[in-house]
């Protein structure tokens, strides 16, 4: 394609995309400078550097963001906002702005002069003012919002004028706020004017070398940025890493080819290159000049450098392509022959071995020619012809061979000379060969005559015939038509087939073989057999003697072909029934009998929880797709689908539950036998058969053996009711025989205590602890739900802009983390005194698997936990009050909420306490109790869920108390 045509196509593509300069997110259109250089270079060239501003930055969103961590040397000025937080005698957290007088006025404090003051100095001034007003009060100051400054941006920018930017903004930020530099503006001569002087800003230094330089200089209020017109430019085209149009540095003079190549990122490949300078003369003419010295400074305004490697050929390389695992180049010294180029480990599954193609250079004509290759001979080491550099070996697969008998190919062989509009290059090449030689052997020979009586499938063109179009006619010229002895009747290329080129066209390309059938799969002697008029399926299987021992007994498939239409039919049969003489069928010429191993069938059909007979091929969400079974990769997909469609699901009390395909309606006894038989806990009198129609009935397998199941049905063998639970319970502590005990379905706590030998003399049944896994999970989920609700409410408070204190937010997040990390025991309040349970059996709890019961010894202490100065276990004294125990623990802390104090009784129940001076009610506190003083929820008063914080804190305290009890 001519360079000018390539450029015009590129321009049309860009313009067809429809970008407009009003939308900064769209790519820019082609500038006049880019159009001029691209037309001269014959390839698209873009101006370098302007993508720095595309897509345009949303300056409003960027300026609205928080300033982040600000250093203490930041100098404050009018407009800065400061968050002042006080803690102690006076507590608040508010936002204040430095006013026009430069002062920061905080509530109830003397004004502090902040303008011109570093942030650290302001903190010291503020601390002194707070200490003078409120003793024992700490002060904190953080920068909440940075002031805005105004700069003027003029020249070649998209939105010139005054720009409001952050005090942290740089020259690059101001240019971005102005929409970026236009493509007719300079990136190398931008001027920053301040206080009567100017500073040069070069954006090339930032993009080429990473040196921000003056582009990263902070701006001041009143600064001006001017972007002058674009300066001198040069173009670089060819195999470089960053071809484009580059602006020359102002006043820098001309550049050398080496400097321009470095500016473009360097060459794509090492080695010598041809350097061509295209310069514009005084009269406007363009002259070409070869540059011998890359360091000579010859390139100025308007010049174009074209770089081309002296050589782009490749030496000592051969290639392996097609139906191989790792296609691509190979080194000629290590693959000097065909046998050295290819081994069986290189091939993908199902390669076609009788025919391959070797592409070489024809010495006489200098063109590329395809030669047929017997791949089997190559693999056996018999074909050791030497290779030359540039040779390519193409390996064909089953899909490539199937396409030789596809309907588009047959249509061309029948006489149609125009391929379909969407035809691949291989079909186009075949059509041209037939049209160029209408009386040739391919157009009038055996292939064409055979195509007149065939009907092919409409399969897509394989990629190999798209990459190598000449391979399709070559394969057809060397093909023979096989109707028997192959999996798919059709054209099969072989190396020794006669062609018109060698004068040996074979008229017997349609093979008139004797009728035959084929045994495939799990049989003792697979292969082709002669078919007689008396041959039946039972005779082919030799009354079952031809089958291997572990053959799958319920399904085999007879694959039958219609030679006229090349369509296949699949006839299922039961090998078990055929071998027993209860079923049989006559065979036809070309029948292929498929038998399968039981293990392979189980790998194909996975258990289906939904009860569907069809095997699912899609992985569930979040699961990785299983690797397909080896048998699925070897079998025809239609056979795999048929096996899945004829599956009966067998579930329940069998040794190997899952899906089992059947030929037709099959006795349930046969299904249970292939499923490994009934398991020990099976109940044969209560089998459940669900038919594909939806009807369901209970079947007694022992009484009636006539019940049958067909494809799509489901059979469930129900287990007998179990007298024992699957898992045991544990009892520890003050019992005579502690340990793990198997329990029945209705086992109670009193019976377990009796089995454990009863209680010891020092047992304390009032403090018994029963922990249950289901209750633990429920409490864990409750904590997780409360943590999520707490975090969601906190986020809503922040989104609404409510004045939430920062320390409250931190405390709330800490509480959510505690809720997520809490590990409850799952304690259940129970009565464990055998004497009480005998008189009141309704209090005797039923046990569940994995329950744990701990009967403690009689305690002599009362524990005090929570917000106390010294959590302890105080000695129990009858009549001692809660205040007495609390005083022994040092009393409540500053964060305690004594009004919510409660007592955890030895059996796990909780009871509120009144620890106030005006309440003189006497609370009886038994030994083994835990007095809990929870934390005060008042720090969370600023949140909508403050009323629930007390309950959350109490639950955490109860959890901690329960852990301490079980740990004794």
Automatic annotation (TrEMBL):
Name of this protein:
Sugar transporter
List the lineage, top down.
Bacteria, Pseudomonadati, Pseudomonadota, Alphaproteobacteria, Rhodospirillales
Where are the annotated coiled coils located?
773-800
One biological process term from GO is: monoatomic ion transport
Spans annotated as Disordered: 607-626
Q: How does it sit in the membrane?
A: Multi-pass membrane protein
Question: Is Lipoprotein one of the keywords?
Answer: yes
Any signal peptide, and if so, which residues?
1-16
What organism is this sequence from?
Azospirillum humicireducens
| Residue ranges annotated for the SLBB domain, each copy included | 151-227
Domain Soluble ligand binding span(s) in chain numbering: 234-251, 648-690, 729-773
InterPro entries, per the entry: Caps_synth_GfcC-like_C, Poly_export, Poly_export_N, SLBB_dom, Soluble_ligand-bd
Q: Where is the Capsule biosynthesis GfcC-like C-terminal domain?
A: 873-935
- The Polysaccharide export protein N-terminal domain, residue ranges: 70-132
Instruction: Give the protein family.
Output: Belongs to the BexD/CtrA/VexA family.
Q: Which GO terms describe its cellular component?
A: cell outer membrane; pore complex
GO terms, molecular function:
polysaccharide transmembrane transporter activity; porin activity
């Amino acid at each position: 394609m001519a360079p000018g045509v390539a450029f015009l196509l590129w321009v049309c593509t860009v313009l067809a995309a429809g970008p407009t300069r009003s939308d900064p997110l769209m790519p820019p259109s082609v500038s006049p400078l880019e159009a001029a250089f691209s037309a001269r270079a014959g390839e698209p060239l873009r101006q370098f550097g302007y993508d720095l501003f595309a897509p345009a930055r949303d300056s409003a969103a960027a300026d609205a963001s928080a300033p982040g961590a600000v250093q203490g040397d930041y100098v404050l000025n009018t407009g800065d906002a400061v968050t002042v937080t006080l803690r102690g005698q006076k507590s608040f957290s508010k936002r204040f702005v430095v006013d026009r007088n430069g002062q920061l006025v905080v509530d109830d404090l003397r004004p502090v002069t902040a303008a011109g003051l570093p942030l650290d100095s302001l903190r010291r001034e503020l601390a002194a003012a707070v200490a003078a007003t409120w003793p024992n009060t700490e002060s904190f100051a953080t920068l909440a919002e940075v002031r805005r400054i105004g700069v003027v941006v003029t020249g070649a920018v998209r939105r010139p004028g005054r720009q409001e930017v952050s005090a942290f903004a740089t020259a690059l930020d101001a240019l971005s706020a102005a929409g970026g530099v236009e493509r007719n503006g300079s990136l190398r001569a931008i001027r920053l004017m301040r206080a009567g002087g100017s500073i040069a800003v070069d954006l090339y230094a930032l993009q080429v070398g990473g040196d921000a330089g003056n582009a990263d200089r902070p701006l001041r209020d009143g600064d001006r940025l001017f972007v002058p017109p674009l300066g001198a430019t040069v173009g670089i085209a060819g195999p470089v890493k960053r071809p484009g149009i580059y602006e020359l540095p102002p006043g820098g003079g001309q550049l050398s080819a080496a400097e321009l190549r470095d500016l473009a990122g360097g060459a794509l490949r090492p080695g010598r290159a041809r350097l061509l300078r295209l310069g514009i003369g005084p009269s406007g003419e363009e002259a070409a000049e070869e540059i011998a010295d890359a360091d000579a400074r010859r390139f100025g305004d308007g010049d174009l450098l074209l770089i081309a490697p002296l050589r782009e050929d490749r030496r000592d390389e051969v290639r392996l392509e097609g139906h191989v695992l790792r296609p691509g180049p190979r080194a000629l010294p290590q693959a000097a022959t065909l046998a050295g180029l290819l081994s069986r480990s290189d091939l993908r599954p199902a390669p076609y071995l009788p025919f391959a193609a070797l592409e070489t250079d024809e010495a006489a004509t200098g063109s590329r020619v395809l030669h047929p290759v017997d791949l089997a001979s190559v693999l056996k080491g018999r074909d050791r012809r030497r290779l030359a550099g540039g040779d390519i070996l193409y390996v064909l697969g089953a899909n490539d061979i199937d396409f030789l008998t596809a309907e588009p190919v047959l249509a061309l062989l029948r006489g149609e000379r125009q391929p379909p509009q969407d035809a691949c290059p291989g079909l186009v090449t075949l059509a041209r060969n037939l049209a160029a030689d209408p009386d040739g052997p391919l157009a009038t020979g055996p292939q064409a005559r055979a195509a007149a009586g065939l009907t092919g499938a409409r399969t897509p063109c394989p990629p190999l015939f798209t990459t190598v179009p000449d391979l399709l006619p070559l394969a057809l010229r060397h093909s023979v038509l096989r109707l028997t002895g192959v999996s798919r009747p059709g054209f099969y290329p072989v190396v020794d087939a006669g062609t018109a080129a060698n004068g040996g066209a074979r008229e017997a390309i349609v093979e008139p073989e004797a009728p035959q059938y084929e045994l495939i799969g799990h049989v003792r002697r697979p292969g082709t057999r002669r078919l007689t008029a008396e041959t039946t399926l039972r005779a082919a299987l030799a009354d079952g003697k031809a089958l291997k021992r572990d053959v799958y007994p319920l399904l085999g498939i007879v694959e039958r072909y219609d030679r006229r239409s090349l369509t296949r039919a699949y006839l299922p049969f039961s090998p078990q029934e055929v071998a027993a003489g209860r079923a049989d069928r006559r065979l036809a010429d070309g029948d292929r009998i498929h038998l399968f191993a039981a293990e392979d069938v189980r790998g194909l059909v996975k258990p289906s929880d939904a009860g569907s007979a069809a095997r699912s091929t899609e992985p569930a969400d979040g699961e990785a797709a299983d690797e397909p079974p080896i048998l699925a990769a070897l079998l025809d997909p239609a056979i795999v689908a048929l096996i899945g469609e004829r599956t009966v699901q067998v579930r329940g009390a069998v040794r190997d539950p899952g899906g089992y395909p059947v030929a037709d309606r099959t006795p349930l006894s046969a299904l249970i036998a292939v499923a490994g038989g009934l398991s020990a806990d099976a109940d044969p009198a209560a089998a459940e058969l669900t038919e594909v129609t939806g009807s369901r009935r209970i079947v007694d397998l022992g009484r009636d053996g006539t019940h049958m199941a067909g494809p799509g049905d489901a059979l469930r063998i129900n287990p007998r009711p179990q007298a024992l639970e699957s898992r045991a319970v544990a009892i520890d502590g003050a019992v005579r025989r502690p340990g793990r005990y198997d329990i029945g379905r209705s086992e109670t706590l009193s019976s377990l205590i009796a089995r454990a030998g009863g209680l010891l003399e020092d047992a304390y049944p009032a403090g018994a602890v029963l922990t249950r896994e289901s209750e633990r999970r429920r409490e864990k989920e409750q904590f997780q739900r409360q943590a999520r609700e707490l975090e969601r409410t906190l986020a809503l408070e922040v989104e609404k802009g409510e004045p939430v204190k920062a320390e409250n937010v931190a405390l709330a997040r800490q509480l959510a983390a505690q809720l997520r990390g809490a590990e409850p025991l799952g304690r259940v309040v129970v009565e464990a005194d055998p004497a009480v349970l005998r008189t009141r059996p309704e209090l005797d709890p039923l046990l569940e698997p994995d329950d744990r019961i701990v009967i403690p010894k009689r305690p002599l202490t009362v524990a005090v936990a929570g917000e106390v100065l010294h959590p302890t276990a105080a000695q129990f004294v009858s009549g001692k009050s809660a205040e007495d125990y609390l005083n022994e623990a040092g009393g409540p802390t500053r964060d305690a909420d004594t009004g919510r104090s409660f007592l955890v009784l030895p059996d796990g129940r909780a009871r509120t306490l009144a620890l106030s001076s005006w309440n003189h009610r006497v609370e009886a506190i038994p030994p083994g109790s835990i007095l809990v003083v929870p934390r005060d929820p008042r720090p969370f008063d600023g949140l909508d869920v403050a009323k629930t914080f007390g309950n959350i804190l109490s639950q955490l305290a109860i959890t901690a108390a329960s852990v301490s009890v079980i740990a004794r």
